[in-house]
Amino acid sequence: MKRIAPLLLFPLAALAAPAAAQITVLGSGVEEHAAQPGETYSGTLHLRNDGRQAEEARVYLSDYSFGADGRTTYAAPGSLPRSSARWVAFTPSTVRVPAGGEATVGYTVTVPATAGLHGTYWSVVMVEGIAHGSPESTTGAAPARVRMGVQSSTRYAVQLATTLGADAPQVRFASARAYPSASGKVLELDLANAGEVAYRPEIRVELFDEAGHKAGAFTSKRGLLYPGTSLRQTFELGAVPAGTYQALVVADAGGDQVYGAQYRLKL
Predict the structure, then answer these.
(1) Which architecture, in CATH terms, is 171-266?
(2) Which of 101, 143, 175, 187 is the most buried (most CB within 10 A)?
(3) Using H for helix, E for strand and C for coil, what is the string for 12-23?
(4) CATH of 6-164, one of 2.40.40.10, 2.40.30.20, 2.40.30.10, 2.60.40.10
(5) Domain boundaries along the sequence of the chain
(6) Rounded Cα–Cα distance for residues 37 and 69 (Å)
(7) What is the value of pTM for the model shown?
(8) Which of 45, 21, 259 is CA-nearest to residue 153?
(9) Each residue's pLDDT tens digit, 185-229
(10) One-character DSSP codes across 33-54
(11) Distance separating alpha carbons of residues 112 and 86, to the nearest angstrom
């Protein structure tokens, strides 16, 4: 490698479950803040109910990690090395949203005044709808017609990311693979965050044939990539002729931090 210079929705199915809540969480799903040890900051999550009856949701914390292999981990709060869950307080833990209305959940992050804290720390606030008729519900029994059958429940995960210090992001190109698809050829890249600071990578690929002629250019912008996590980005190359190609890959991590790699591909 040559150096040139993190709202998640989970459908959950349950047998004979009451109807799912209609609550959604507004916003981007990621709350980012720069802070110093000992500093406190606050924010607000906004919830909306598009349904015709009042709905409830429970709010709780979780740790969160992911990998290029498709692994996604939601762990006990405070269990992962860079968890910020113990820094976070929020209220209320159960929220009621009126029909066609909105409600808010306030949170406060208190960064410990501890020497050695550096880089990005994160956790997620989970907002999970409470089904009517469940033991947690105060909105009344569920209609009889939905008591038998499969219903879905939804959860939203809002990422809270706190960065201490301004180190340069560190990009590591893990692997590259090319394979055919129904629409032509596909290039699959794995990218990892090898540093201590989260960043949003913009990945650019330029494809050249054996004569040095450009065969295509592709760009993708990804969400927040946390320290120790990785992602897999797929580029549809189209129906390029069979042959050997050079792929020049550039990952822009923001500011002056741009990283490059080159791969020889047989397509």
Answers:
(1) Sandwich (2.60)
(2) 187
(3) EEEECCCCCCCE
(4) 2.60.40.10
(5) 6-164, 171-266
(6) 34
(7) 0.85
(8) 21
(9) 999 999 999 999 999 999 999 999 999 999 999 999 999 999 999
(10) EEE-TT-EEEEEEEEEE-SSS-
(11) 9
